Amino acid sequence: MSETMSTNEEKKLPLNGRRAIPPNYSNDEENEVPEMEAFGLIPRGFNPRDYLRVEEIYMFKDPHEINKQEHHTDKYYNPKLIVRRGQSFQIQIYFNRPYKPETDQFWLEFLMGRYPQQNKGTYIPIAVGNVLKPGQWGAKIIHRENNSIRLSIMSSTTCIIGKFRLYVAVLTPFGILRTRRNSATDTYILFNPWCQLDAVYLDDEKEREEYVLNDVGVVFHGNVEDIKSRSWSYGQFEENVLDACLFLMDKAELELSGRGNPIKICRVASAVINSRDENGVIAGSWNNSYDDGVAPSAWTGSVDILLEYYSSKQPVRYGQCWVFAGVFNTFLRCLGIPARLITNYSSAHDNNANLRLDFFLDDEGKVDTRLTKDSVWNYHCWNEAWMTRPDLPVGFGGWQVVDGTPQETSDGMYRCGPASVQAIKHGHVCFQFDAPFVYAEVNSDIFYTKMEKNGTQVVESIDTTRVGQLIVTKEVGGDGMVDITEEYKFREGSDEERLALETAVMYGVKKQSIQDTTYQPQTDVEMDFQAQKAVLGNDFKVTITFRNKSRNSYTATTYLSGNIVFYTGVTKSEFKKHSFSAKLEPSSSSSFDIVIRSREYMSDLLEQASFHFFVTARINETGKILAVQKATVLEIPALRIKTKGELVAGKEMSVIVEFTNPLKQTLENVTLRLEGPGVLRTIKKQFGRIPMNSTLTWEVKCIPMRPGLRKLIASLSSDALRHVYGELNVQIQKP
């Protein structure tokens, strides 16, 4: 194709001594394709109408027709043909007269981008033959009737993912005649988890239905002791979402020729999902003030975010980890890469990947926030994408961690992954990409270190079990939770776990041995801390329990610090200080209750209603320190959703959302959001205020488009209260 560029075209190209053709980043740009490509001087009597001519190309592109049905693409709200690579599809060509194979010669051409080239996979000529070879480009005639022929076309299993333009070329003695540019015949080609030769092949049909075709998911949040869940609408089949996802690869400047490789796509996407480099999709914000955007907790799904970015080309404000992960999941499933959203409870954000989080204590045993740089997130969400890893030794394919939340840079950009889950479990963190960082997120130890006056550090206590103690995802085919911790790590304390750790250290994960530091803990006294489950706006109590296993009497000077924290474990403010002296009798347990009043915490509360308690106790007789920390999350009341009228596709129905204000104050600046893929597009409504104890009711009329089991998801956001959700499963009947 590129050889036939007209001379004025060649003049326009910027000169570059390294490459003849400029980089080809855009799936959207096009080149001019001549309708008549002459072989030389054309004789005067030449009339193109004397030769075989294409009158029409029929693509079988409606959702109920063979192509979209067989390729599992019938759910996409997109009028064009969408097929998956490595699997045959059909088109019908109508000529001006019957096709004569002895004398007529035609072929198909698929083109992508501005500078199509055959060796880059962006110009694909397909001759019509007698057989289709699996996994290779080809076409054969399967039916002839009057002036038409039906073709079966096979695409390559390593084909580029994106939107191709289709031309039919006919050979004449004097040149090549081509069909005119017609966007109605554009063809999207996606990854194919149903095809054994595809790098993303997944062999379980139920898993494919969940990880590729399910457009709603569940995000688990809260903390280990109090797991909360909410639904998230991925909406990968909604109108314009596929184009928005292809635009992300253009934005990330991924060469078109690299777009058949899921490893490359995941790596560039993990950078472009966040705005830290090159103005990516979502701007992160963890500071609780979101006046110039949408609070992260208010989003109910990915579609609004992707479409806003696609139209404005500017980062959408604001997101936190589950928003980055939700949008990333939409991107992966939309392109056909099996993907799931993961939550790691007590996730270590270790600033120097040394498998050790340092919490520094001052003289009184309180945590020194000035010196403490590391933090434990109550939870952190990332994604797993399923693919082979031909770039790694055998055995490291399968689920790969990819993370779009900007935490640390990797090769100079804020991105993370793909890192093999199997490699993380076995400590083989030498294999690309970013395995040491993920290994630390699930395996770090917490060191409580006291700074002495002379500058020496004394380790007072080590917690080896808190970080990464639970890793979960949504179950296949339901909304329940599955514990996948054992896919990331061996059982705490097992021989295999020690071995995996030694392997990780050998491969360069830094770990200071305990021998390097003076550490003799108090072993004959144990301290435990429990918080009562409580509803937002109420008082609750916390209990500190000591077990003195020795025959000595001890006194413990005990200090409790209650902090309001971001879910990332970073403190906003200390709202409760309480110290007391505890008498510990020999061989006995003693418990102490402390009441937390709602007035103490309400004014400073952050959106996820997360508290973090530090308890430190000094045993006066020995000078040793006991330390324990616990996160706790308040119960936030839910929205109630119900429906009115018949639930039939194509008929009007009503959705009613209700909420009762539980707080002892008026809620200001209330925004409600409601969405449900296949039932209604996201609708937002502002309400000025909801007085205390009063109930807000909002009725929305809509016409559901798709029959089947659908999910309605709602969220409420206000100045004093966020993270309020509700959901409802609805069965839409066929008309």
From TrEMBL:
Keyword Acetylation annotated: yes
Family: Belongs to the transglutaminase superfamily. Transglutaminase family.
Residues the entry annotates as binding Ca(2+): 443, 445, 492, 497
Naturally occurring in which organism (per UniProt): Myiagra hebetior
Name under which the protein is recorded: Coagulation factor XIII A chain
Reactions it catalyzes: L-glutaminyl-[protein] + L-lysyl-[protein] = [protein]-L-lysyl-N(6)-5-L-glutamyl-[protein] + NH4(+)
One function term, GO molecular function aspect: protein-glutamine gamma-glutamyltransferase activity
Cofactor(s) the protein needs: Ca(2+)
UniProt remark on cofactor binding: Binds 1 Ca(2+) ion per subunit.
Highest taxon listed in the record's lineage: Eukaryota
Pfam families according to UniProt: Transglut_C, Transglut_core, Transglut_N
